[in-house]
Amino acid sequence: MRGSSVRATPSTLAMKLADNGILGVGIIGAGRIGLVHLEALSQCESANAVIISNPTVSKAEAAAAKYKVSEFSGDAMEVINHPDVEAVWICSPSQFHADQIKACAAQGKHVFCEKPIATDLPETIEAINRCNEAGIKLMTALQRRFDPNFKRVKVAIENGEVGETVQIKLCSRDPAPPPFEYVKGGGGIFKDMAVHDLDMARFLMGCEPVEIMASGSCNIDKSINVLPGPEAFDTATVLMRFENGKEAMIDVCRQAPYGYDQRAEVLGQKAMIMTDNTYPNTARIFSADFTGNADMPYDFFMSRYKEAYVQETLAFVNCLVKDEPAPCSGEDGLIALVMAIAAGMSAEERRWVKFSELAPQLCALSSDLGVSSLTPEECAVELTSETGALNFAQLGGSLDFASSTKKAADKTRNALASLFGGFNKD
Q: Is the pTM of this model over 0.90?
């Protein structure tokens, strides 16, 4: 266990990545997700887990012993400041992500961060900006992109196996509704659940969304009816139109009594490709009164997406060693959040919401508080493309909280949090 931290100097910020061909990695968080990534790293020849931390230090000690990690700590900053750590895997609770990302950026450490990047939109943008300013890579762990089933659908689209995409359908249903306290303050079903499907629709479509229509209802757990806005929904439907003129349909529900239901379907002009649910085995029963799978689909996300968690870890290690772009960037995480915000607006106001509608609100706040040098009108033009999609590459730069005064940044953060709400859950 380390007893002191090491502070970076300007020379250490210019470190050469993986000088010996082995990437030095630190892990923050020894919970379920942290252990999944630690196990993946232990199987990776081009990465070496140097240190792991957890507030309950006994968990970090147990993980270090199991996976032969040489050091452990109860302090996340000892991971970030460790001189042999070149990249940090942030697997801590959501409310700590933004500060830990910014601390990594200050030390010149690349970041792999479990979703979400931050608990609100301003902090998300600030964290991304800090990484961009520091010249480090930031990967958002939207693990479904790395699931073998969904990845095969993407390959079929890219290889022209289905022809030009006509429409996309996504289905996401959990085995059972989460506890009331999980839903409360989580920002609603679009932010804490459908955000994965919104990202997958964009990932498969290969272009930016233009407008969205969403609706929600409470059919499973009536206790959440007292919660505000989309937090009161346990069932929702989304229709999203993209700049190529094509549409994606999404349905989500917090309960499917038969297990995890996660499917995708893409109809093309030449063919259709679809995925099925994942089962613990391929055994099937044939009897006088039943024909089908011997067991139910996986009923826990850690089991359903175990291979995806491994693959996303290996993908980030590979991009660092080869100095390639992060396969799922911080901007991808930001866009997923913006899509979830727009879906919530649509459901509450019962109308189509154009993504360009968000530009004036964001730009007005940034201009009024001195964060952007552009007028609100100029900023809105910069953020909106000819197709009506938001130019997300400009979004982070226009709202550069890192370069504003702390007072202005705090005022902006509070105003945007009031406007757009929180984003709390993995």
A: no
Residue with tokens 């089962």: 279
Place of tokens 């700049």: 243
Closest CA to 88 of 33, 23, 153, 145: 23
Query: Facing residues of 72 across strands?
Result: 52
Lookup: tokens for 28: 């923050």
Q: How far is CA 315 from CA 37, 47, 179, 209, 312, in A?
A: 12, 12, 33, 26, 5
Give which of 78, 72, 74 is closest to 55, Cα–Cα: 74
- C-beta separation of 233 from 216 below 8 A: yes
3-state secondary structure the chain: CCCCCCCCCHHHHCCCCCCCCCEEEEEECCCHHHHHHHHHHHCCCCEEEEEEECCCHHHHHHHHHHHCCCEEECCHHHHHCCCCCCEEEECCCHHHHHHHHHHHHHCCCEEEEECCCCCCHHHHHHHHHHHHHHCCCEEEECHHHHCHHHHHHHHHHHCCCCCCEEEEEEEEECCCCCCHHHHCCCCCHHHHCCHHHHHHHHHHHCCCEEEEEEEEECCCCHHHHHCCHHHHCCEEEEEEEECCCCEEEEEEECCCCCCCEEEEEEEECCCEEECCCCCCCCCEEECCCCEEECCCCCCCHHHHCHHHHHHHHHHHHHHHHCCCCCCCEHHHHHHHHHHHHHHHHHHHHCCCEEHHHHHHHHHHHHHHCCCCCCCHHHHHHHHECCCCCECHHHHHHHCCHHHCCHHHHHHHHHHHHHHHCCCCCC
Residue 3 has pLDDT above 80, yes or no: no
- First CA to last CA across the chain, in angstroms? 29
Radius of gyration (C-alpha) of the chain in whole angstroms: 22
Q: Which residues contact 10 (CB under 8 A, 6 or more apart)?
A: none
Q: What is the pLDDT of residues 266-323, one digit of tens each?
A: 999 999 999 999 999 999 999 999 999 999 998 888 888 989 998 999 999 999 999 9
Each residue of 233-256: b (16+ CB within 10 Å) or e? bbbbbbbbbbbeebbbbbbbbbbb
pLDDT digits (tens, 9 = 90+) for 186-214: 889 999 899 999 999 999 999 999 999 99
Dihedral of CA atoms 351, 355, 359, 360 in degrees, nearest 10, equals -20
